[in-house]
Design a protein that fits this description.
19 helices, Rossmann fold, 43% helix, single chain, Transcription Regulator spoIIAA, 5-stranded mixed sheet
Amino acid sequence: MGQGIAQVALVAGHPVRLYDSAPGRAEQAVAGVAGRLDRLVEKGRLGKDERDAAVARLHAAGALDELADAVLVVEAIVEQLPVKQRLFADLEQVVAADALLATNTSSLSVTAIAGGLAHPGRFVGLHFFNPAPLLPLVEVVSGFATDPAAVTRAYETAKSWGKTPVRCTDTPGFIVNRVARPFYAEALRIYEEGAADPATIDAALRESGGFRMGPFELTDLIGQDVNEAVTRSVWESFYQDPKFTPSLAQRRLVESGRLGRKSGHGWFSYAEGAERPEPHTAAPAEAPARIVVRGDLGPAQSLVDLFERAGVAVRRKKGDGYVELPSGGKLSLADGETSFEYHQEDVIYFDLALDYEKAGRIVLSAREGIAPESLAEAVGLFQALGKQVSVIGDVPGMIVARTVAMLADLAADAVERGVATAEDVDTAMRLGVNYPAGPLEWVGRLGHRRAAALLHALHERYPTGRYAPSLGLVRRAYAEEAEETA
């Protein structure tokens, strides 16, 4: 990470010195950065003259006092609070009074790192994402004692380096690692409940939710130990708030040594020749010739036109927003309830999609013992649209809808508490973890009232506090209702 940040500053035109307390490591880092620049030249992304000029600006520092004239020092050492505190205490004795001090920590408190400094006002967090030269996002973090002027300097510096900076206060996980927890947590919870296997959950979030990777394959790539440690750190930092509770299934995976790609096995096997499990996909079924759409389907209303274009006759009637199948079964968008609660009716839930026309897969859930003809009609109806269909267990809130509602809840809570602006939260989640839409943008499409209602329903079924909607989301739901009735 240190080499990556150095490369970013060099390419932007700054002279850079690299320091490492281990003898010879700074020189190795200089060679490493030069090698990175050589590869950019080979790929045609950097001119040879630019490369030579950049390398001429790069030097190894043999001692800390060689950083005396630095105007910005960025630390990217081991994630141990006492070690970072000692380094900055030493730096404070070396650099000028107006030099900006920054930490690239991803998990420690910026306030705590600066706690022992004589001048904590000039201390900020500059959290780059790995690899720093490629990923545009930088979280600019204000500690409790950070001066606004220092934040502005850090923000403008990152921006001048071609990055997209966002401002946030010093909160556990900052923006991205705080708001992203439900993407992993809800998938793990659904797996622990036996509703679906990892391959099917991943497929749902990729092919219906529009996420680039599913949570199981992504944590295998990150490293199960790393992802679990971040989750545990955020949970403990929030005094074991149930919204951030770690997963027992992931803990067992880590204890077994199945850490993901780096160990050759995580949720999936990466041994040579190993086959990746396929998501459960329903067998072909015949589509119903006609359906009745009762009321407005809300964020799934676009399905009505898609059904008609697929040759299904659609009759529209008043109702509470569901599809009535010829068998009498009801097809309803996930709302936080379960199919078994309607034991006298055949209710089948379908999951939320980012874009129903582009979605490659639709997920259904239904209670055991539901009429086979109703389930077959539901499967065939979506297959008529050219979709793969996965039928999972009767889990409230399904997969995508539940995940999006929880992401939006934590995002709204972060804004409500002044962690960051709504725009910065959405920008951070799009650029930091490649979400297809910012969670607040997405909940705007879904409807704040619908998201809050889904979480209320989940809270009734899991009364632990995990799903109780935040004040930020509830406030937005009331504002949405007031706007619609004005």
